[in-house]
């Protein structure tokens, strides 16, 4: 079976995390409280995250975890350790308003950081642990990222990847389905890539569950929005071959 996706190609989506600052938008309703007077030097943290990504790309996962990622995580955890507000990180205004609404419905005071550096540090740490085969720490770190950004499609798909590697098929399928829905809140230029990633993840799991017709539907759904997606084409060909052997 063809590999479900190339993880390194996916992590590079993180290079654009600083580009989308929802505070630049002109919302029709008042935006949620943001970290306009952040106690953290966000620009410095972004530089550390870039350093970590360079190390991860070079296979220096432990160096990234114990070096720049540890620094970023310590900085934000220290800065917000005594906050009485629920802290979220968002990339878009839509995502920020969603988190603000969730907190309001739970009768919580909240602050939504317009630079998702803190959540991205947890995500990259989880990604690095996963690359090292340490699925326990990968899962824990990704769940920390999702506490801050519960509707981040990229984080959800990476957690789905961990569940997949653990052969926890039910959790993997649920998480990839959540990632598909959460792509709606991502920056516009990332939506198709994120949706296809989540759809391919579902397709892979459904093949493992021997639900070939459903798997084919997922790959076709990706091709309907990204007709040239080679991984979906390859996977769909694999599924068709299995169906032919099964006499379908």
Which key terms come to mind for this protein?
248 residues, two-stranded parallel ribbon, 3% strand
Describe the protein in words.
It is a single chain. By secondary structure, the chain is mainly alpha-helical. The protein has a single domain, classed as Tetratricopeptide repeat domain (Serine Threonine Protein Phosphatase 5, Tetratricopeptide repeat), CATH 1.25.40.10. A two-stranded parallel ribbon has the order 1-2. Helix 4 links the parallel strand 1 and strand 2. Helix 7 runs parallel beside helix 9.
Rg measurement, Å: 19 Å
- What name does the CATH topology carry? Serine Threonine Protein Phosphatase 5, Tetratricopeptide repeat
- Provide the structure class: mainly alpha
Number of domains: 1
Note poorly predicted spans: 2-6, 17-30
Succession of helices and strands = HHHEHEHHHHHHH
Average pLDDT confidence is 89
Number of DSSP helical runs:
11
Give the CA-based shape.
Answer: globular
Sheet with the most strands: spatial strand order: 1-2
Tally the beta strands.
2
- The CATH homologous superfamily name equals Tetratricopeptide repeat domain
In the CATH scheme, the class would be Mainly Alpha
* Ends apart, CA distance between termini: 19 Å
Level-2 CATH architecture: Alpha Horseshoe
- What percentage of the residues does DSSP assign to strands (E)? under 5%
What characterizes the major β-sheet?
2 strands, parallel
Question: Level of helix content?
Answer: 55-70%
Pfam family, one: TPR_16
TPR repeats: 119-152
InterPro entries: TPR-like_helical_dom_sf (IPR011990), TPR_rpt (IPR019734)
Organism: Dyella humi
């Amino acid at each position: 079976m063809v590999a479900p996706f190339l993880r390194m190609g996916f992590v590079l989506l993180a290079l654009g995390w600083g580009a989308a600052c929802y505070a630049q938008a002109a919302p029709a309703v008042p935006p949620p409280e943001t970290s306009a007077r952040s106690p953290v030097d966000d620009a410095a943290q972004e530089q550390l995250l870039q350093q970590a990504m360079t190390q991860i790309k070079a296979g220096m996962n432990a160096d990234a975890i114990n070096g720049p990622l540890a620094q970023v995580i310590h900085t934000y955890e220290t800065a917000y350790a005594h906050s009485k507000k629920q802290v979220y990180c968002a990339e878009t205004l839509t995502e920020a308003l969603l988190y603000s609404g969730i907190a309001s419905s739970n009768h919580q005071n909240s602050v939504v950081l317009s630079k998702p550096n803190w959540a991205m540090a947890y995500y990259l740490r989880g990604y690095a642990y996963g690359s090292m085969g340490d699925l326990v720490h990968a899962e824990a770190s990704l769940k920390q990222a999702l506490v801050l950004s519960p509707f981040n499609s990229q984080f959800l798909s990476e957690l789905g990847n961990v569940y997949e590697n653990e052969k926890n098929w039910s959790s993997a399928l649920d998480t990839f389905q959540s990632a598909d829905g959460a792509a709606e809140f991502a920056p516009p230029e990332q939506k198709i890539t994120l949706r296809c990633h989540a759809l391919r993840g579902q397709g892979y799991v459904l093949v493992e569950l021997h639900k070939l017709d459903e798997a084919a539907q997922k790959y076709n759904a990706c091709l309907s929005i990204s007709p040239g997606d080679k991984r979906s084409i390859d996977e769909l060909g694999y599924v068709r071959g299995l169906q032919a052997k099964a006499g379908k």
